[in-house]
Amino acid sequence: MNEIQEKEFNDFVAMQLKDKAKSNLAVYKSRYKVFTKRFKTKIQNISDDLLLTALLEATSDNEFPANTRAGLITFLILLKRFYNVEHKQLLLFQIENNIRVQIETQERKKSQKKELGNYSIDDLKSHMLSEYAKKNYTSYVVNYLLINYGVRNQDLNLKLVTDKQNLNDEENFLYLKNKSTIQFIRNHYKTHKYYGKKVYEIRDARFVTSIKKLIEKNVSYMLHTSSGDKLDETSLARRIVTYTLDALSEADIFKIIVIAYDKDYDKLKEYEASRGTKLNTIIENYAVNK
Questions:
Q1: What is the pTM of this model?
Q2: Which of 58, 62, 101, 221 has the fewest CB neighbours in a 10 Å radius?
Q3: Is the Cα dihedral 221, 226, 232, 235 positive or negative?
Q4: Dihedral through CA 214, CA 218, CA 222, CA 225, nearest 10?
Q5: Would residue 246 count as lying in a domain?
Q6: Is the CB of residue 214 less than 8 Å from the CB of residue 222?
Q7: From CA 12, how far away is CA 79, in angstroms rounded?
Q8: Does 126 lie in the same domain as 96?
């Protein structure tokens, strides 16, 4: 990215990302770089034809390219719209690509149904209990929260505290409220803007014991670096799969849960609240048997 492009990008995101999550900046920057690798001038001045050619080339090796292209084409449209530049071909491509996204989504669901159909929620729970029996307390806590609350990776970046004075409104916590209760507090998660702070009281004896054992070992952050510091968010996914059954991802575990409670509307509504995701979004993205 040269100086001209850097100014174009900075002016755009300054307005576009106003009042939005800071994490969106990294997403926008990665999308912008897809095109700055190929062009040395302002992206707004590049013709739609050339931009679409670059987009297709950059995503040709993706397993589900239409989904990746959706983010890139939306970015280009927003950029050109911001600079008041004509972009009819981009809009037409977006319509065509949206149809392809729907097709790919169904293909992906069929594939995932076949793969994830080998697992049940009982398998997940058995693994969780096995980890506790082995005194792998962090693993038990991670799996417990994934299974019972359907949380995302980001939600598991948790600080362990015993003093209420050490709580704040920025981080996520596991607070030892009393000898038999842990408060699971989430301030920093994907949909916080819409759902606000979430607090759950957990009295599961194994969970409480696990937290006490970690605190006894002077663990400050449940997922931490070798020096005990809070783990960087970019490393969360890689760390979390070291604790899950067969290295299943957070998303795959949630899909297994949704499959298990496919006919249980009340249970899915509980996960809607605890995960912080609308039920129709859960059905659309995680119900692989639909």
A1: 0.67
A2: 62
A3: negative
A4: -130
A5: yes
A6: yes
A7: 7
A8: no
DSSP structure string for 236-258: HHHHHTTTSGGG--HHHHHHHHH
140-179 as b/e, with b when 16 or more CB fall inside 10 Å? bbbbbbbbbbbbbbbbbbbbbbeeeeeeeeebbbbbbbee
Instruction: State how far the Cα of 290 lies from the Cα of 287, in Å rounded to an integer.
Output: 6
At 181, give phi and psi (nearest 5°): -140, 130
Token duo for residue 98: 């949206």
Q: Length of the chain in residues, anyone?
A: 290
Residues 6+ apart with CB under 8 A from 134: none
Structure token digits, residue 280: 């129709």
Residue with tokens 């249970």: 267
> Around Cβ 8, how many Cβ atoms within 10 Å?
22
Q: Are residues 139 and 185 in the same domain?
A: yes
Mean pLDDT by 10 residues, the chain (290 residues): 93 81 80 95 96 94 86 96 96 94 76 72 95 97 97 96 95 96 95 93 97 95 92 90 93 91 92 93 76
Contact (Cβ atoms closer than 8 angstroms) between residue 143 and residue 127 = yes
pLDDT at 20: 61
Q: Which residue has the tokens 């589900």?
A: 64
268 contacts 275 by C-beta, under 8 angstroms: no
Residue at which a domain ends, from 107, 142, 160: 107
